[in-house]
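Case study 2.
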Amino acid sequence: MTARTPPQCTPPRALEVEKEVICEPLYDSAPNLSAAEVRDGGASDLRQVPFASNRIGKRRREIGTDELKTSIDNLNKLFATSMSQQESKLADVMSVVNEIRQQNADIRMSVDFLSEEYNDLKKKLIAMDIERKDQILYIKSLEDKVESMERNSRSTGLELRNFTQKAGENKSDLSELVMKIGEKLQTPVEQLEIKDVFRTKSKAENKPIIVEFTSVIKKEAILESLKKFKRDRKGQLESSSFGIHGLSTRVFISETLTTKNKRMFTLAREFAKTNSYKFCWSSHGYVYLRKGDGQPAIRIAADDDLDRLKSVK
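Prediction:
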């Protein structure tokens, strides 16, 4: 087997690089110097002409110095203008700040003044509220005294309602009516036991009759007899029940009440109907309610008593 001869490689020729000729500037001190002379470092090289080089450097320095001075002057002017504007703006800002400070001081003084006024007003309101409560208590005590005096003045009286009023009726006729009622109730009433009897002013056709006895004992005896009379008859009272001639009408007999207790009696009766209370009556000038037989009696002296009963239903 014949050995193969490796191929012969001829190395490439070195690339010839042309030298780049750099032309440096020629100066007026050597106008006839060629580029070759300059490149070859001949006697005409600028480095061999120190006077021309110094003059060029000086000119450059002068030009640079003038430009620097001009730039510095411009910067100084700009800085001065900016400082002037800033000082003007700062003066305006300080003026506004001082004005705000003064306003804040005035506001603080106003707030302090209003705070003092508020505290004084609050103290006055507290004092007035205490005084008002004291006055309310005092007025309540006066009302209670007036109510007690009025109740005592009516402690011997009875009120007869819906009895037919006759033409030309006088006190003698009314006294005879009272004595006839006492006779039917089996509690005789003498003429001397009647202190006064009269009809009140009212818009009703048959005005109520008020009879005042000489003693509370007689009044209480009439009321007790009336209760027994109603239990025995088990019905409503009518004028015919007392032997009164004419058209029979439903009549009512009760003790005389003060204006306040009349109102409370009306409210208590309405409350009894709507809340299933079996009994509602008055005794010794006071109004009472009872839920049912065997239940305790509840005294009704004010609207609050009815409200309290509503809340515990």
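Residues 156-256 form a domain with the Alpha-Beta Plaits fold (CATH 3.30.70.1820).
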